[in-house]
Amino acid sequence: MKRKLTLLALTVFVATSIFAGCSSKTTTDTSLADIKAKGKFVVGLDDTFAPMGFRDATTNEIVGFDIDLANEAAKRMGVKAEFKPVDWAGVTMSLNNKDIDVIWNGLTITEERKQQINYTKPYIKNSQLIVTLAGSSIKTKADLAGKVVATQLGSSSVDAINADSKTAATFKELKKFDTFTTALAELKAGRADAVVIDALVGNYYMAKEPGVYSILTENFGEEEMGVGVRKTDETFLAELNKVLDEMKADGTFDKIAEKWFGTTNMIIK
After folding, report:
1. Average pLDDT of the residues of the chain
2. CA neighbor of 43 nearest in space, from 125, 113, 114, 101
3. 3 state DSSP class of 17
4. Domains along the sequence of the chain with CATH
5. From CA 180, how far away is CA 162, in angstroms rounded?
6. Confidence (pTM)
7. What is the number of H-type helices and E-type strands within the chain?
């Protein structure tokens, strides 16, 4: 009798464990079917990151290159894209906590982030510019010695600076702000000597204020960007890659790039 009870208990334990395992996968994986069931995916972004995703000064609506891409991808998947501003320094945490479904906002692919999330195929190239005010005596990276450098907290610009530890060690101070716009404001106010910024963003602001800024020939490296998803969301990731490939093949990517950048040379085919 004791043996029969033991076998029965073991059977129940195994069955419960299997059920629990299946249940765990269901609750942790946001599949393509889940996205379609709720009719949308939620995009996390920094809404000051022009021209990738930012608020229109007149309408206050969130617009931008990545916004147009996400809306088009959602349309092709039969759902809608909902945009949710988040604290960029904690954006991967927001994703893994399921506050958002994707990070789609000029997200640089880094080894550190790849430990926490998955990416779509890279779709756009970028570099880390060094921006000064026009007329500055800073002409090279070596000239940053003893200077105050500003950038955005939690951005890949910080990673790029840290990767060049020899140069970074010469700074008087590295100031990190919540947004690149704040970093640029510090530069204009004379409280910073240079800003390290994503080229896609930096070039946008340079064009808006011609003659105000100067871009150094040297930079802090080149990089690629992708859409970030949770590691568990494999079917959703596969569908995103499929749709993005289709958008590149039929010219939609180029059309959106021309709209926001006036060129397509940064698009990764």
Report:
1. 90
2. 101
3. helix
4. 32-123+226-261 (3.40.190.10), 127-222 (3.40.190.10)
5. 17
6. 0.80
7. 11, 13
